[in-house]
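The authors assume throughout that readers already know how a fold can be written as discrete tokens. For illustration, here is how one protein appears when written out as sequence plus structure tokens:
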Amino acid sequence: MADILVVEDEDNIATALDFLLSRDGHKHRRMATGAGAVEEIRANRPDLVLLDVMLPDVSGYQIVQDVRADPALNDVRVLLMTARGSVVERRKGLALGADGFIAKPFELSELRAELARLLGGRC
């Protein structure tokens, strides 16, 4: 079981993630905006952050960059999620320090495979 922070502004996607993560036995919580996300990550040190790129206030790219700038958060895995799943977007996210990148809408099997890879079997 892993501790997962979901930063996602779209309720329908957050609901689907809640269902999947609950069914798989993960402890998780959601933030609907990016404001305060870095502080939340710093305070609670989740095993994984499922981070939407397009948030209403702060870009997911900015959040991953801020997390990677803090050496104390090196062990926090970040999986970026975006509806703009182009190669350019993927390269940008990985270059900024994301551990994975998944295009929305995603297949549950694809998301589960990424979770397993990033959590090292803790799912």
